[in-house]
Amino acid sequence: MTATNSGPMTVKDLEGMPDDGRRYELIDGVLIVTPTPGTRHQRIALRLFALLDDACPPEYGVLAAPYAVHWGDYIELQPDVLVGRFEDFTARDLPVPPVLAVEVLSPSTRLIDLNTKKAVYERLGVPSYWVIDPAEPRLTVFELDDGAYREVGIAVAAEVYQAAKPFLVRVVPAELLGRWGH
User: Fold this and answer.
1) The predicted structure's pLDDT at residue 6
2) How far, in Å, are 99, 118, 142, 176 from residue 111 at the CA level?
3) What is the per-residue pLDDT for 3?
4) Whose CA is closest to 73, among 2, 12, 25, 32?
5) How far is CA 64 from CA 54, 104, 130, 182, in A?
6) CA–CA separation, 48 vs 63, rounded Å?
7) pTM, rounded to two decimals
8) ω into residue 95 within 30 of 0, thus cis?
9) DSSP, residue by residue, 55-114
10) Measured between alpha carbons, how far is 8 from 26 in angstroms, rounded to an integer?
């Protein structure tokens, strides 16, 4: 983006961002830059990816960040883990809302994930939004109900959450950390 262009950023502007390990996302033309995730964050995201991928029926695909979800010219999000309809993925992005977006909280993203991104996912019509807090560990599940997110489940530490959407999968937050949980 040049100094003479003071309007909102576009998805095309993100192509010029450095490949420096940070995550560059765009929400309504506003750039959100977050640092590289920490160990617990990465452990949870990768183990959840594997868990979802193993349970995933053929009509869906599971990917982990960095992977872009585009919506128009002014929104590009990179959920920590996402599930989309297999037929909707392109070679470089998901140009439609995923059926599940998962964000793993970190000190630098907590407020964004719990407020801004949750509101954007809700507005885009993402049917399921999961938030994982690595500190407890805790899974909070939101599902769209008449256009608004409603909390439908919580699992803390060794508690089990049996997801029905977008497909059947059993999640135990403490197991997502494995030996890194100590």
Assistant:
1) 67
2) 22, 10, 16, 22
3) 43
4) 12
5) 14, 11, 14, 24
6) 10
7) 0.91
8) no
9) H--TTEEEEESS-EEEETTTEEE--SEEEEEGGG--SSEE-S--SEEEEE--TTTHHIII
10) 10
Chain segment 88-143, per-residue pLDDT in tens:
999 989 999 999 999 999 988 898 999 999 999 999 999 999 999 999 999 999 99
Residue type, 80: D
Residue 62 tokens read as 């599971």
Q: Give the integer Cα–Cα distance in Å for 178 and 167.
A: 23
CA–CA gap between residue 25 and residue 76 (Å, rounded): 5
Alpha carbons 123 and 136: distance in angstroms, whole number: 28
